[in-house]
Amino acid sequence: MVTLRLSPLALSRSRFALSPLAETLGTALALARPHPAPWYAAWRARHLPAFTAALAADPFARGLLGLLGSTTWLPCSVAIPPPDGLRTTLAAELAAVRAVPDAVFRAELETSRAHPHPRYATGHRHHHDLAWLTGHDWAARTADLLHALWSAHIAAEWPRRRALLERDIAHRAGLLAVRGWPGALEQMSRHSTWEGPDAIRFGRHPGPDRVIGDTGLLLVPVSLATGTWLCEGPAGRYAQVYPARGAAATATADDPDRALERLLGTGRATLLRALRQPATSTELAARLRQSLGTVGGHLAVLRDAGLVVGVRVGRRVVYRRTERGEQLVGDGDGTAQRRTPRG
Asked: What are phi and psi of 162, to 5 degrees?
C-alpha cells in the first residue's frame, strides 16, 4: 500500500474539487470493463453499443481504453489533479493532456503496462504489448478521444451528475466542520485508512510513498466509477478520486425508485429505503405495517445479497444498510464506499 504523508499545512489547505476529466475516465472504465455492478447494468446497456462501435473504428482508442481498463496504475498524462477546484472545466484539463510529449506519454503507458490488474488484465493482454501505439501526437489523440467520450456519454447527464457530486461534497464538508478531516474521509474508501495525525494509507498494491506538500490534497468525487485512483501533477500536486455517495442513482432510469423496485421487488426496495436509519425488525414491521415474518424474509434476502447487516445490541438485532446497500439506494445517507485501488 502507498502512504500519503501530509505536511503540517497540508490538512488545513486540502479541499474538494470537481473534475470532468476524472468523470470521463470513470465512465470509460465502467463501459470498458465487463461484469458491471447491478445498478449500472441498464445504463451500460444503453451506452455500450455506441461505445463499442467507436472502439471498433479506432485501434488507438481500443488499445488505450483496453489498457486503462486492465491496469492498476493510471498514467499521469490522464490522471491529472483538477487545476481550478470546483470551477475546473474539461477544456482546461484536456489542454493539460494535449501538452504531454510523446516520449513522456509512452513512458507512462509502459508503467501502466507493468501493473496489470489481477481481475481484468487476462482478457486484455493484447492491449498491453502497445502494438496499437502507432504514429505520433498520442496525447492530442487521447484528448480528442476523451472529448468524444464526454460528448457521447456524459454531457447530457452532466447537470444531474454535477448535482450529485456537489451533494457529496456538501455532506463531507459538514463532516469536516464537526469531525475534522479524519471524519470527513472516514469510509470514503474501504482501502484508504487514516494513520495517525498526518498519513493516509492508500490502495492495496505496493508503490512509493508520496508527500503531500503545503498546497494540500484535492478530494474529487466521481459518479459511476466503482474505483478510486490517485492523480499526480507537477510540483507535488495530488488529488484522490473516489466514488460519490449515491452514485448508483446516476446510472438508473429517470425514476430511481422504480428502477430500485424493478431490481429488488417492491417489498424489499421499500424496506431497504426504510433503513435510512438503522432499526430492528420489530421497528421496521411497525413502521411499514407489515408482519414480522414478511420483514424477516425480506431482511434475510437483503442480508444474503450483502445489502444489509444486523448488529446485536444487547437483546436486540439492529439492521443497517451496508456500503453496497447505500450505493444502491443512493439517497445520500451513508458514507461507506467501495473502490478498485490504483497506484
From this structure: -60, -40
Q: Where are the alpha helices (DSSP H) in 115-202?
A: 138-153, 158-185
- The torsion angle over the Cα atoms of residues 322, 323, 325 and 327, rounded to 10 degrees, is 160
Distances (CA, A) of 241 to 20, 47, 60, 188: 12, 23, 25, 10
How many Cβ atoms from other residues are within 10 Å of residue 36's Cβ?
18
Each residue's pLDDT tens digit, 9-68? 888 888 999 999 999 999 999 999 887 776 677 788 899 999 999 999 999 999 999 999
| Grid coordinates of 258 | 422504480
> Using the 8-state DSSP alphabet, how is residue 151 labeled?
H
CA 56 to the chain's CA centroid? 26
Q: Are strands 308-313 and 316-321 parallel, antiparallel or unpaired?
A: antiparallel
Phi then psi for residue 341, to 5 deg, are -70, 150
CA–CA–CA angle 153, 159, 160 (5° rounding): 85
pLDDT tens digit sequence for 243-291 = 887 665 555 544 455 667 767 777 888 899 889 888 999 999 988 888 8
> Which amino acid is residue 198, in one-letter code?
D
Q: Is the pTM of this model over 0.70?
A: yes
Q: Encode burial over 69-106: b for 16+ CB neighbours within 10 A, e otherwise.
A: bbbbbbbbbbbbbbbeeeebebeebbebbeebeeeebb
Under DSSP, is residue 77 helix (H, G, I), strand (E, B) or coil? coil
Q: Pick the more confident residue, 291 or 1.
A: 291
Tell me how far apart the alpha carbons of residues 316 and 312 are, in angstroms, rounded to a whole number.
6
Residue among 212, 248, 250, 215 at smallest CA distance from 230: 212
Taking the C-alpha atoms of residue 9 and residue 212, their distance in angstroms, rounded to an integer, is 9
* Residue 116 DSSP class: B
Q: E-assigned strands of the chain? A: 2-6, 15-16, 192-195, 199-202, 210-212, 217-222, 229-232, 238-243, 279-280, 308-313, 316-321
Q: Which amino acid is at 255?
A: D
